[in-house]
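User: I'm writing a tutorial on reading structure tokens. Could you give me a worked example: one chain, its sequence, then its tokens, then a sentence or two explaining what the tokens reveal?
Assistant: Sure. Here is the example chain.
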Amino acid sequence: MVTIGMNYEVIPGKEEAFEGACKKVIDVMGDASGHDDSQLFRRVDKDDVAQYLIVSRWSDDSAFQAFIASDTFKKVTNWGAENILAGRPSHTTYRTD
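And here are its predicted structure tokens:
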């Protein structure tokens, strides 16, 4: 089992678009092979920046990598087209044995 932390910084005013896209991503993850659970969190202690974290549990890293490389994932994300993100997302993998 691995947990993936996906960190995003969103352009001010684009929070609603980002959250809507995340809901779609989390919905399609539900059908992905190897996916267990995902949740979206927002940082609340800073008003001048919108930072988000998706915590996602997978059977293994290869299942997560296959999902983010899939056409299904590409169809529900529009970060670039919508000019939503303030920078590149960063992902951290936490492994449990």
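What the tokens reveal: The chain has one domain: 2-95. The first strand starts at residue 2 and ends at 10.
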